[in-house]
Amino acid sequence: DQQVKQNSPSLSVQEGRISILNCDYTNSMFDYFLWYKKYPAEGPTFLISISSIKDKNEDGRFTVFLNKSAKHLSLHIVPSQPGDSAVYFCAASLANQAGTALIFGKGTTLSVSS
Amino acid sequence: KAGVTQTPRYLIKTRGQQVTLSCSPISGHRSVSWYQQTPGQGLQFLFEYFSETQRNKGNFPGRFSGRQFSNSRSEMNVSTLELGDSALYLCASSLASGMNGYTFGSGTRLTVV
Q1: Residues with pLDDT less than 50, chain B
Q2: What DSSP assignment string belongs to chain B?
Q3: Which residue of B26, B27, B72, B79 lies most exposed, with the fewest beta carbons within 10 A?
Q4: Which of these, B33, B3, B67, lies nearest to A34 by C-alpha position?
Q5: Tens digit of each residue's pLDDT (9 = 90 or more) over A68-86
Q6: Does B39 touch chain A (CB under 8 A)?
Q7: Of B4, B101, B107, which has the smallest distance from its Cβ to A49's Cβ?
Q8: Is it the case that residue A97 has pLDDT exceeding 80?
Q9: Which CB contacts under 8 angstroms, 24+ apart, belong to B85-89?
């Protein structure tokens, strides 16, 4: 059973516009959520995270929103740039005494056209 | 500072063989995690090591194993390779629990033929 879902495999946006990437989760025990960006032939790069006790975190052009009641989070990129074209992964963290595991969604491919 | 280094970058093995992949974390990072990325399943957690101890393990068969050395370098081993083990294997390191994000290496692309 997939605990973290990114239902849109792809998203196309024009340069300068807003990109909104969505993520849904099922496990209410997740305590931290993270977004990663991945280019081909490279490992994922950490973008931004949010604690489950917050509803918004902002870092430059990137903002993550968390709606706990809906078990939904989204990543907003404003303004979008061609260099943002990549695969974006949503991940949820489940920390316990034994350690931490990241549960990833399957990713959304963002294409930003100039 | 140097990032997470994974070797080798590419590997081709035959079914039934075993393989060992290596990961050198960022200096000072004590937590090392391994993930498998396949087109169908995305990124899946394999295991996490901290101070030479496996702290957490994902839902993979016992053919997948790992270890961490005193210098925090880690290896993962896959025995009796199957075609379905073909994937990108990613290693990630963090200072402790990685709440501010793990740093990933570029991965080892394993192809089983």
Answers
A1: none
A2: ----EEE-SEEEE-TT--EEEEEEPPTT--EEEEEEEETTTEEEEEEEEETTEEEEE-S--TTEEEEE-TTS-EEEEE-S--GGG-EEEEEEEESSS-TT-PEE---EEEEE-
A3: B27
A4: B33
A5: 999 999 999 999 999 999 9
A6: no
A7: B101
A8: no
A9: B85/B110, B85/B112, B86/B38, B86/B110, B86/B111, B86/B112, B87/B36, B87/B37, B87/B38, B88/B36, B88/B37, B88/B38, B89/B6, B89/B21, B89/B34, B89/B35, B89/B36, B89/B37, B89/B46
Cβ A46–B41 below 8 Å, yes or no? no
CA nearest to B65, candidates B13, B5, B18? B18
**Interior CA angle at B27 toward B21 and B29, to 5°?**
80
**Does residue A81 contact residue A15 with C-beta atoms inside 8 Å?**
yes
Cis peptide before B8 (omega within 30 of 0): yes
Identify all chain B residues contacting A102, using CB atoms and an 8 Å cutoff. Answer: 33, 35, 43, 45, 98, 102
Cβ contacts of B12 within 8 Å, gap of 6 or more? B110, B111, B112, B113
Q: Could B43 and A98 be called an inter-chain contact, meaning their C-beta atoms sit closer than 8 Å?
A: no
Q: Are A36 and A88 in contact (CB under 8 A)?
A: yes
Task: Determine the distance in angstroms separating the CA of A18 from the nearest CA of chain B, rounded to an integer.
Answer: 24
